[in-house]
Each structure stands twice: as structure tokens, then as C-alpha cells.
Design brief:
Helix content: over 70%
Strand content: under 5%
Largest sheet: 2 strands, antiparallel
Order of helices and strands: HHHHHHHHHHHHEEHHHHHHHHHHHHH
Shape: elongated
Structural class: mainly alpha
Radius of gyration: 32 Å
């Protein structure tokens, strides 16, 4: 009886495949290109972030070709989110990129597994090419792959599913055994790998009682440093996986495809990657403030969504950090914002502008010389995203601000203001050369012009010092940006005072010159009695 029970458990996995709809063939060329791009990004990340980005771009192109051939739209949406997460993780540690890629690869295997088995159930001759690729994806030995293909030719899809499930379960268990109850990169990567492989088994693991949400809980405990709770969760996961492996030891009883179809009425449909649970981990040797974000699958349908409050909170903390010249702290909070962005409601993830916001938050995390306006633009873009999800009109000003912040920021902004500060000396020099400094009124005009140009001087000089401090980690230099009058609200009254003094001085100077020209009042009473005071008039 136990043998029959195990056979029906495995049969439910095939029944799920039937519930997914007709078994259309996937674009295997695009699948291989997507896999190669993701794996190549992980391999290239340690040598060159730009090379890894090129790989991810190629993977994105391949996914666009693959997506129309994916029958499960939830899996397709989850894979799309995972690819976006991989781009976001690229700006952080290699471990986070690897974890995000493992999530994407797990979803790819799940999609290929479901559609291949659905094809085999409808006819033993169907899905041969997909099955050959699937055996390589599951890492089967040549003997194991031959056995799977033999089962397919014999018309035994339940035994094909059993062999693949057994291979996936063993990988889950080995990854869990390699995971230690400690907050390290190796533990994080191993636990993410176990989660990735369990993605394939989520619909056939009823005998063990395991759920993907348990893996997500363990990842959150790991990243939070809750080692005691993590140890308990790992023990539970290992026990459940061991039970699953044991249930897959005995060969399944033959189950006819017609019986599999009838069994589908009693099995739950796959809830594949409808949401993602984001977790954070710091790489060994890096401060906690530089923590990044990586997403893991939480493939439970109907999981409660969270609102955008954590996203706004993280962006608000980033704004506070950049407001006093702490660009490193701002980037750390933006990493938290990226994590929170993965957990926003589905209405926001599907709204126009979500992908752009993910990209902009990711780009800001790797941006040198991060300033207040950069974070303000992200907050404004988040507001526009909420407006789009609610069907309200978007703010044109916020849209333009987001575009400007994306293009005019970082070192480009620093160098532009440095150049302006340098050339601002030119009109002052020419004014002095033309009229000298012996006339009181010309000196007043020159002083007023210098005060008007003072914000440019301050931004150019201290913006450069702050950027150098951000690049070198020198705290004293990082704080130099606080001298800039456009750094925060405190600069506005100072700017107003400087402008008032400039207006007063220039008004005094030009009024005196007008009197000397005879344009105002009595020229004779206002002229300087010496030749020095009249040199400009005679020269003119």
C-alpha cells in the first residue's frame, strides 16, 4: 500500500503538468542561450562587472525569445523578476549575483520540467529534445540520462519524473548539509542553491511537508544573523528533505496516463514564482552597511503582498544619509530599497515604470558621489509608479527629474561643476583687466558678481573634494559636500543671503557709475575729484 501511495505522490507531479495546459515545445536554442548568459555572468563577475553586464544583456535578449514559448505565465513573470534582480545584484557582491542567477536557473528548470513531462504524458514520442536538455540541466550522469531516455521510449512518464525528482532531491539535501548555521557567504550561497533546486520539487513534495516559504524563512534568518533560529530551520529542512529522498528511493508503480489525468482533480496546481521574497546578506569582510539584496523564490500562490512602506522607508534613510555627505551609507540604504522593491504588491510590479525603477535604484547603488537629488528622484519615481498602478495621471516634473538624475549625476556632475567653477574666474579677470580696481563702484560691481558666482565655486570645489572622499573612503573629504549650497535645505537661506549682498553691492556700484555718466543725479557732485576716479570715463 505504501508503494502505491508513493506512486500516486509522484503521479501528482505529472498531473500538475497536465493542469498547465497544452504541452507546447519551448525554444531550446533560446533556453540554452539564456542559461549560458546567466552562468557566464557569474563566472565573469569576479574579473569584470562590465563583462558580466554584457552576459546579462545577452541573457535578456534570449529570454525575450524564450518567453512566448513558456506556458506557465507565473513562471515567466517570476523569471523576468529574477533577471531584473540579477542586474540589480551585479552592482553588489559576486555572491548576491550568484544567488540571483541560481533563482533564475531554478525557475528555468521548473518550466522545462513541467512542459516536458506534460508532453510525455500526451505521447511518449513527444518532448525528446526537451528531455535530453532536461537531463543535462539536472546534471544526470551518462548512465542516468540513458535510463531516463529509455523510460521515455518505453512510455513510462511516471518513472521519468521519479528519476528527475530523485536527482533534484539529492541536490537539495547535499546543499542543505553544506549550509552551516552562520552568517557567511558560503552558507548563503548553499542555502540559495537548495532553494533553487527545491523549486522543481515544490509540487511533488507533499510527503515531506516542505514548502518554499520555509526556505525563504531560513534565508531571512541567515541574513539577519539569527543563528539559533537558523539552526532549527536547517534541521527541519534537512529532516523534511531526508523524508522526501526516502520516499523517492523505491521505484514507482506503473501509472497509466489516463489515471494520471484523473488524479489531477485531487492535486493542487503549481503556484510557480508568483511572488519573490527578498533577503539581504553581507559578504565576509564587508561592513554591514554595504549589505546588498538578492531574491529567492517564494512560490506560494495567494501569499499576502506587502505595501510600498518599506521601500519608502529605505529611500528615506538613503536621503538622510546623503543629506549629510554619507554616500556609502546612502548606497547601503539603496540596497535595502532594492530588496523592498522586490516585495512590493503585484499591482506595482506589473505597472509601467517598475523595470525602470529597478534599474535606476540598482544604478544608484553603484554610483560614486551620490547626492541628495539622486535619491529625491528615486522617491519621485516611486510616487509615479504608485500613480500608474492606481490609474492616476503621472507627474511630468517627476518623470523629467528621474531622467535628469539618471543621466546627469555621479562624476559627470562633479566634472561639469568643476569646469564651471574654473571658467567662472574668466569674467572676473576680464572685468578687472578692463576697468581695474581703483574705482570704488567697479570694485562693488566686481564683488557682487563674485558673490553671484560663489555657489558655482563652492559646488565645483567641494563637490570634487566630496567625490574624492567617497572614492577613497576619507571621511573628512566626504563631508566636504556639506559646504555646497545646493546640498540641503540649510543652503537655501545662505544662498538667499549671498544673493542679497550681491544685489546690494551691484546696485550700489551701478548706481554710482550711472551718476558718473550723468544718467542719475548731478554728475559734478558725484565724480571723484582725482584723475584716478575718471580714468574709466576718459578711456571710454
Amino acid at each position: 500500500m505504501n508503494r502505491n501511495r508513493q506512486g500516486w505522490i509522484r503521479a501528482s507531479g505529472l498531473a500538475v503538468a497536465l493542469l498547465l495546459g497544452t504541452a507546447g515545445a519551448q525554444d531550446l536554442v533560446a533556453y540554452r542561450q539564456l542559461a549560458a548568459g546567466l552562468d557566464g555572468a557569474v563566472n565573469d563577475r569576479n574579473q569584470s562587472a562590465q563583462a558580466a553586464l554584457t552576459r546579462l544583456d545577452a541573457a535578456g535578449v534570449a529570454f525575450k525569445q524564450l518567453r512566448p514559448t513558456l506556458r506557465n505565465r507565473q513562471l515567466a513573470a517570476g523569471l523576468d523578476d529574477a533577471l531584473s534582480g540579477a542586474r540589480a545584484a551585479l552592482a553588489r557582491t559576486p555572491a548576491e549575483l550568484e544567488a540571483q542567477v541560481m533563482l533564475a536557473r531554478g525557475l528555468m528548470r521548473k518550466a522545462l520540467y513541467d512542459q516536458t513531462l506534460a508532453a510525455l504524458v500526451s505521447g511518449p514520442a513527444n518532448g525528446t529534445a526537451q528531455l535530453q536538455l532536461l537531463t543535462r540541466e539536472f546534471g544526470l550522469s551518462p548512465q542516468g540520462a540513458s535510463a531516463v531516455l529509455a523510460e521515455q521510449k518505453a512510455g513510462r512518464p511516471e518513472r521519468v519524473a521519479w528519476r528527475l525528482q530523485r536527482a533534484a532531491a539529492s541536490r537539495v539535501l547535499s546543499s542543505l548539509k553544506a549550509t552551516r548555521a552562520e552568517r557567511t557567504t558560503s552558507s548563503y550561497v548553499n542555502l540559495a542553491r537548495a532553494t533553487s533546486w527545491f523549486t522543481v520539487l515544490q509540487d511533488t513534495a507533499d510527503a515531506s511537508g516542505l514548502q518554499v516559504s520555509q526556505f525563504g524563512d531560513a534565508l531571512r534568518q541567515l541574513t539577519a544573523g539569527k543563528t539559533t533560529e537558523l539552526a532549527a530551520s536547517l534541521a527541519e529542512l534537512r529532516q523534511g528533505t531526508s523524508t522526501l529522498v526516502s520516499s523517492l528511493t523505491a521505484e514507482p508503480a506503473a501509472v497509466a496516463p489516463r489515471a494520471l489525468a484523473s488524479a489531477s482533480t485531487g492535486s493542487r496546481p503549481a503556484a510557480a514564482a508568483s511572488t519573490t521574497t527578498s533577503v539581504v546578506v553581507s559578504s565576509p569582510g564587508t561592513p554591514t552597511s554595504t549589505s546588498g539584496a538578492a531574491s529567492t523564490a517564494a512560490n506560494s500562490a495567494g501569499a499576502p503582498s506587502v505595501d510600498a512602506a518599506p521601500l519608502y522607508a529605505a529611500l528615506g534613510r538613503a536621503l538622510t544619509a546623503t543629506g549629510h555627505g554619507d554616500a556609502a551609507g546612502g548606497r547601503s540604504e539603496l540596497a535595502r530599497a532594492s530588496m523592498a522593491l522586490r516585495a512590493v504588491p503585484a499591482s506595482l510590479r506589473t505597472a509601467p515604470g517598475y523595470t525602470d525603477l529597478v534599474f535606476n535604484v540598482s544604478a544608484a547603488q553603484s554610483r560614486s558621489a551620490l547626492r541628495v537629488s539622486d535619491v529625491q528622484a528615486l522617491i519621485a519615481q516611486t510616487g509615479n509608479l504608485e500613480a500608474a498602478a492606481a490609474g492616476r495621471p503621472l507627474s511630468t516634473l517627476d518623470t523629467v527629474s528621474s531622467s535628469v538624475a539618471r543621466s546627469f549625476s555621479g562624476w559627470l556632475r562633479v566634472l561639469v561643476f568643476l569646469l564651471l567653477a574654473a571658467v567662472a574666474v574668466v569674467p572676473l579677470y576680464l572685468l578687472n583687466l578692463a576697468f581695474g580696481t581703483r574705482n570704488t563702484y567697479w570694485r562693488a560691481v566686481m564683488a557682487g558678481l563674485a558673490l553671484l558666482l560663489l555657489p558655482i565655486f563652492l559646488e565645483g570645489l567641494f563637490g570634487l573634494l566630496g567625490a574624492l572622499g567617497d572614492a577613497t573612503g576619507a571621511g573628512a573629504l566626504r563631508g566636504a559636500v556639506n559646504v555646497s549650497l545646493i546640498q540641503g535645505a540649510y543652503g537655501l537661506p545662505l544662498w538667499a543671503l549671498v544673493c542679497a549682498l550681491a544685489i546690494g553691492l551691484m546696485s550700489f556700484g551701478f548706481r554710482g557709475l550711472c551718476q558718473q555718466f550723468g544718467l542719475m543725479g548731478s554728475p559734478s557732485s558725484t565724480r571723484h575729484p582725482t584723475q584716478t576716479g575718471l580714468e574709466w570715463d576718459e578711456d571710454l
